[in-house]
Amino acid sequence: MLTEDRTAPVSHSPTPWRVGLWLILPLVFSGCFSYAPIHEEGLTPESEVRVRLSATASDQLSTTTGRSVRTLEGRVVALPSDSLRLDVAWGAVYAGTPFEGRRDTLSLHRSQVLEVEERQFSRTRTGVVAGGLVAGVLLVLRSLTGSGTDTGPVGPGPGDPL
Model's pTM, two decimal places? Predict the structure, then answer.
């Protein structure tokens, strides 16, 4: 009959896959870009933007697409005087990751747009990503090569009585 040994020491050192998981999570939730508010006069074609829609525009688009749409992210195609034309990618979202299914060009009247934010490079987020990558590489290398804290076997040495 086998019995469970509850007196065995428990190792608290993280395994490489757990270390990798904890390093990947911040990278997933951060990025090198952020959105900053911009006036419509500052918009130019080819700008990457996020647009917050009015309630009526949100309701119309939600009915058309079959899901709740309050904001749109896309590239500005044209800027007629009374509207904003965006190239928008549509697709499914799995576990927070969007997968592009199709692209549409939408024309929004200026009254349907509450706020426009332009996508901009973020030094802070880029620093977080770079720091996470460096720390991850160092931890993986350390786990593969050993931590340098091994003091040898525990127990009596040569010539010591048992």
Answer: 0.56
